[in-house]
Design a protein that fits this description.
Keywords: Flavoprotein
Protein name: Flavin reductase family protein
Distance between the termini: 39 Å
Cofactor: FMN
Order of helices and strands: HEEEEHEHHEEEEEEH
Largest sheet: 7 strands, antiparallel
Number of helices: 5
Family: Belongs to the flavoredoxin family.
Amino acid sequence: MPTMPISRAFTLIESGPVVLVTTFDGLKNNIMTISWTMVMDFTPRFAITTGPWNYSYHAIESTKECVIAIPTLDLIDQVVGVGICSGAKTDKFAKFGLTPMKGMHVGAPLIKECLANIECRVIDLVEKHNIVILEGVEAYFDGDREEQRTLHAVGDGTFIVDGNRLDRRELMRSKLPKGI
């Protein structure tokens, strides 16, 4: 098997889906694009990788809350646009035509155009590795939305879109939590 540059190995296992993370710092709403996400177990615990280089990080650090919004293929240009400009100088909701919606538990807004939103509270900041551990407190899903395919960043400016869903629940039943 041929080798590849080790510096590009992350493109082989880049996680997904790409998410939009919203914050509210007490004065203004903001959105950042995050492709480094992780489900931590079968509970509503998640991890995102971000740090002080992102404008939104300071709001996450001070308020200890955010919303993970899950965009779909039809929002790819907004997802990329949000990720390449700074909220310090831009109202990203206005610039990218996204609608903030009030949640029930946190000050950060939901994004109406997204397939799903998860209100989260920060339960740990692992500064050494720039990991924010989140606990979901409320989840929303728009099952009536026509486009439901999510985006997965490869890490080199390209994306993979969800395809067909393959059902192996019965085969895996013994490993799944009750009710899944």
